[in-house]
Amino acid sequence: MLKTLLIFVLGALIGALAMWRIPALAQSSVKDQPKSGSPKVDFGELNDDVTRLKNITPNLSHVMADVAFQYSNLWFAGQKKNWPLAMFYYNETRGRIRWMLRINPNPKTPEGEVVNLQGIFDGIDTSSLAGLKKAIEDKNSDQFPAAYKLMLDSCYSCHKSAGRPYLRPIIPTAPPQSIISYSPDPS
User: Fold this and answer.
1) What percent of the chain has pLDDT over 90?
2) CATH code for the domain in which residue 104 is found
3) pLDDT value at residue 43
């Protein structure tokens, strides 16, 4: 009973303090705002910032090379049944694809047609990519190769939709790096 009363009183004191300080903080931030109601925008500086950001943003081929690197590593981790490493590379692959979509969710084909990559990815994310994740989570070495290949087919479908059918991914034949052990055995 005493503990409950103490918690109630402490909560009331904290609430009262917050109610007393919040209006004071809000009022002090209002004083710092310009009188006109909206800050002045320097459009020249804004255009310079946009130009700078466009110049430092990687192009999609750079990001997709990163996707290929992560996805190739995923294959070898899965083949060695190193499921924690496979999940790491799965997440890295998915993260790089999402990065690509933030850079340009609607690229143009070589013919100039706009492609809705976000829409394509949304379908892949809930189908073949989800199936691959399940195979990894279930540590299913029988299901993993088929799920990996299905995801490759989904990648190729996206490449064709983007007007790049010559980008045909395949199962990797050699690991892209030699510094990481794909074996689940730490020795």
Assistant:
1) 62
2) 1.20.120.290
3) 86
Q: Is 22 within a domain? A: no
- Do the domain assignments include residue 80? yes
Across-strand partners of 108?
114
In a domain, 127, yes or no: yes
Domain with 124 in it: 56-161
Distance CA 131, CA 5 (A): 53
100-111 burial: b if 16+ Cβ within 10 Å, else e: bbeeeeebeeee
Give the number of domains in the chain.
Answer: 1
Q: Which residues contact 73 (CB under 8 A, 6 or more apart)?
A: 85, 89, 92, 175, 176, 177, 180, 182
18 within a domain of the structure (yes/no): no
Within a 10 A sphere around the Cβ of 32, how many other Cβ atoms? 6
Nearest residue to 71 (alpha-carbon basis) of 93, 102, 97, 94: 93
Distance CA 140, CA 48 (A): 52
For residues 106-127, give the mean pLDDT.
Answer: 95
H helices of the chain, in order, are 2-32, 43-56, 60-79, 83-103, 117-125, 128-137, 144-161
Rounded Cα gap, residues 77 and 73, in angstroms: 6
Predicted TM-score (pTM) above 0.70: yes
